Amino acid sequence: MLNEKFLNENDLVLLSVKDHICTLTLNRPRHYNALSMPMIESISTALDKINEDKEIHVVILAGNGPGFCSGHDLKEICENKNQAYTEALFSKCSQMMLKILKLNQPVIAKVHSIATAAGCQLAASCDLVAASEKAQFATPGVNIGLFCSTPMVALTRSVSRKHAMEMLLTGDMFSAEHAFNIGLVNKVVKEHELDSTVEELALKIASKSPLTVSIGKRAFYKQIELGISDAYEYANAVMCQNMLKNDADEGIRAFIEKRQPKWTGS
Prior knowledge:
- By secondary structure, the chain is of the alpha/beta class.
- Helix 1 (37-52) packs parallel to helix 3 and helix 9 (210-223) packs antiparallel against helix 10 (228-243).
- The protein starts with 12 loop residues before the first strand and ends in a 10-residue tail after the last helix.
- It has two domains: 4-206, Alpha-Beta Complex (2-enoyl-CoA Hydratase, Chain A, domain 1); 210-256, Lyase 2-enoyl-coa Hydratase, Chain  A, domain 2, CATH 1.10.12.
- Mean pLDDT is 95; it is low at 1-7.
- The protein has eleven helices and nine strands.
């Protein structure tokens, strides 16, 4: 299990684990959890530790304070405006986003407030998104002369091209309801219901075989980039491999015997 030393209010990210669910909380509340270079590195380190922990079945990504994540730290960017810093910043941020996709465990973004620019990218990179009715989403880079090119990658893999282009070209702030309607968000609930809604969803997923969920997540993102014939060929191979796992055998037997399965992760 993750060491409790990571539970430090001065850390840029906070980690807590309960019932096989890890909550990873962004912790720059006064800066609306802007993704500074140290913040990106802290998230990446936390994801590496989570990925290695077999006791963690689901991850909840949340933000401390008034915002979920406001994107990159523009003040830091202005203070370090040179090619080496810029290349390192966006490279590390992209690698961090990819770690979310490649994580063994599914990740649920719990968006209680604004998720803008790279913050919108962060939410879109998660496997599921639950939002408060007060949450808002935007890719506003065009408004300051910096097109949201990297957020665009995650956004265009979550919503249709036309809706993505509307967000990217206007830079407008969109409501949680709109985000739900275009497929960026899975659930929109009242503010006071967000915690319980996310917890219920996480517990439901955590009750499944962690091995099966990991296999399925990895296969989902790989097949979606393939042509349909190659996708079926790949999925057939994954299905056969999955079928031979002990958890698949246990799950099938439990279903036939009308009992709860006992997962071993093998």
